[in-house]
Design a protein that fits this description.
Elements (H helix, E strand, L loop, with lengths): L2 H4 L14 E3 L6 E3 L12 H18 L10 E9 L7 H15 L4 E4 L14 E8 L1 H15 L20 E5 L19 E7 L4 H5 L8
Antiparallel strand pairs: 1-2, 3-5, 3-7, 4-5, 6-7
């Protein structure tokens, strides 16, 4: 066989991966999905308010000498305990999909660390879903929570400030996750309760209250 016959055909160059697209619900035009679609100068509204207003108010109120002393929000943890769905994998999946839609980030399934015979739970069985938000996604969720979700809560009169833990962290519960606009009530088979934990770097509850959430006391 000649040398020419032994030459291997050159490998085809790997096609450049194009960003996926989806239609904008307002304009109907296709837009890129993911990092390519995000404006590099974009700043969430709540983060902008924290930088421009809340931070200055905190420094004035508590007399911080250094801007690095100003308390900040570290993370937000969202949790749905699907106790009744522990034996139903379909319900766990529904809870995961709903929490993912609310948070804008993939929720993970939590599993039991040990067996509890009273509740018919075995070790390793899925018992709920949770997601931890940080940075921009954290601020975006806070914006949606305060401006859209809480006003839709039945007989809402403000958050209970007694729900602080004494170290600047706030925990609240919601009876119905359908108050979030991301959830289509007509397509929801189960209404879940939901826990929201806001972790801050504040050392006292008074400092954390200055983040200007709609507290009733």
């Amino acid at each position: 066989m000649s040398e020419a016959g032994t030459e291997k055909a050159p490998k085809a160059e790997k096609a450049e991966k194009k960003p996926s697209k989806k239609k904008d619900v307002n304009t109907g035009t296709a837009v890129a999905v993911g990092e390519a679609s995000r404006d590099p100068n974009y700043v969430p509204r709540f983060k902008q308010r924290y930088n421009d207003v809340i931070k200055a108010d905190l420094m004035k109120q508590f007399g911080y000498k250094n801007v690095m002393q100003v308390p900040r929000i570290n993370k937000i943890v969202l949790n749905i305990g699907a106790g009744e769905g522990a034996s139903d994998g379909k319900k766990i999946q529904q809870a995961q999909n709903d929490l993912t839609a609310i948070a804008g980030q993939k929720a993970i399934i939590t599993k039991a660390k040990k067996a509890i015979a009273t509740f018919k739970i075995t070790a390793g069985r899925p018992i709920g879903v949770k997601v931890t938000l940080r940075k921009d996604k954290m601020y975006e969720f806070l914006d949606r929570l305060v401006t859209m979700a809480l006003p839709r809560v039945r007989d809402f009169r403000g958050l209970n400030a007694k729900s602080f833990d004494g170290r600047g962290n706030f925990a609240m519960g919601m009876k119905e996750h359908i108050v979030f606009v991301e959830i289509d009530y007509d397509k929801t088979e189960t209404v879940w309760g939901m826990d929201i934990i806001i972790n801050t770097s504040a050392k006292t509850d008074d400092e954390a209250k200055a983040f200007q959430f709609p507290f009733m006391n």
